[in-house]
Design a protein that fits this description.
A seven-stranded parallel beta sheet has the order 3-2-1-4-5-6-7, sandwiched between helices. A six-stranded parallel beta sheet has the order 10-9-8-11-12-13, sandwiched between helices. The protein is α/β, with parallel strands linked by helices and 395 residues long. Helices cover 43% and strands 15% of the residues. Helix 3 packs across helix 4 and helix 8 runs parallel beside helix 9. Helix 2 links the parallel strand 2 and strand 3. The C terminus is likely disordered.
């Protein structure tokens, strides 16, 4: 497997090169204070749009993890009290939007979506709202939710096709209103590398079988099931690497001590660069049992040429084809998970075949420009649709 050649963002066209599409002012809102794939997608997309010449602003609470990370990446970020569904958040958003001309607002969590929808409803000429839905939790077909998704938002984006179908069905939505645009990743950064060198750099044993996961330590990521599966495998010279941090850190540590595997588990916490960790693994595992769209960690592992084992949750089966690009097991089934991991570790030919097919699939489908092209076109369409509706209402 040969890593792809890096493609840098094209410079804005020079003057005289013909009429060019208008540059947009894109605003992302995020109420969550946590950290995970959702926040990473927001920042990745924002950086990509900024590199294409658009102005991008992030609005979030001052205490949110995404706030300093956006600053570190050179993005424009403004702290607003939008972490809770309170009138003060609506008022703060409305004041900011009145002072700053905006073309489109991309909302991401429930709270900021409600605040943005209500704040824009108080403006004479509101910007377009695009609602991105990152997780697979069911949405009730209430009158309030139908207003939020179908009336306040010009378009709705999901990160997987199954999420789109479920949302269309539950809300009775026009299929054209909701579109699936999976997250794109940097295929130059996430690419195959030397496994032995990665292990040496990270001070991991070079000859051990390494099973690894990169995920926020939340209950529904399935770490408990993974610990139970690993304990039943009873493999000498094997290590479980758990990269990440989160609210379940201490419960996970207690569980591995209870199972008597704490000496075989490495927990390095959050890592600024997860690439060398992924490259060090013999197999990547993500045993989620709820809420998943298309997990970025799975995409990253496949792009690095590492075989993957996961579950049949959310939109995971859209990228992991059983026996081809990875192995899938039922959620919350430690026995099936242990069997799949053992199978990959024991079968060199299978491990190589899954790795090669996953890498090839990543090259064809996971490029960041695919996501940026589709989101940019959707933003423009939402702006046109909102402008047309506003003009009609002003007559």
């Amino acid at each position: 497997m040969v890593p792809p050649e890096r493609v840098t963002a094209a410079a804005p066209p020079e003057a005289g090169a013909g009429p060019q599409p208008r540059r947009l002012h894109i605003v992302h809102t995020e109420a969550s204070a946590g950290w995970g794939g959702q926040e990473i997608r927001i920042l990745t997309e924002a950086e990509g749009m900024q590199s294409r010449g658009h102005r991008v602003t992030l609005l979030c609470p001052a205490h949110a993890t995404i706030y300093p990370e956006a600053q570190r990446r050179g993005l424009e970020v403004v702290a607003l009290p939008i972490g809770r569904k309170k009138p003060g958040g609506i008022a703060a958003l409305r004041r900011w939007l009145k002072r700053h001309p905006v073309d489109v607002i991309n909302t991401h969590s429930s709270t900021d979506s409600w605040l943005a929808g209500l704040a824009c409803g108080l403006l004479r000429h509101p910007p377009a709202i695009v609602r991105t839905r990152h997780i697979s939790t069911a949405v009730r077909a209430s009158r309030a939710n139908r207003w939020l998704y179908l009336r306040s938002a010009a378009r709705v984006v999901t990160t997987g096709e199954k999420l789109r179908r479920d949302l269309v069905q539950s809300l009775g939505a026009d299929t054209r209103h909701i579109v699936s645009i999976p997250t794109g990743i940097d295929l130059w950064r996430f690419s195959p590398g030397d496994r032995t060198e990665a292990r040496r750099t990270l001070h991991l044993p070079e000859s051990d079988a390494l099973v690894g996961i990169v995920a926020t330590l939340r209950s529904w990521k399935g770490h408990d099931d993974l610990l139970e599966a690993f304990a039943t495998m009873k493999r000498g010279g094997a290590r479980l690497i758990i990269v990440g941090d989160g609210p379940c850190n201490e419960p996970i540590r207690r569980k591995m001590r209870m199972l008597g595997i704490d000496q075989q588990v490495v927990m390095p916490g959050n890592q600024d660069d997860v690439t060398p960790w992924i490259r060090a693994f013999d197999v990547f595992v993500l045993p989620s049992f709820a809420n998943e769209g298309v997990p970025q960690a799975l995409m990253q592992a496949m792009a690095c040429g590492v075989p993957v084992v996961s579950t049949t949750v959310g939109s995971i089966p859209e990228i992991v084809t059983p026996e081809r690009t990875g192995l899938l097991v039922p959620p919350k089934d430690p026995e099936a998970l242990a069997a799949a991991l053992t199978r990959v570790l024991d079968d060199d030919a299978l491990r190589s075949r899954l790795a090669d097919a996953g890498y090839a699939y990543a090259q064809q489908h996971f490029g960041i420009d695919i996501m940026l092209d589709r989101m940019e076109a959707l933003f423009r369409e939402a702006c046109d649709r909102t402008a047309g509706a506003t003009s009609h209402s002003d007559r």
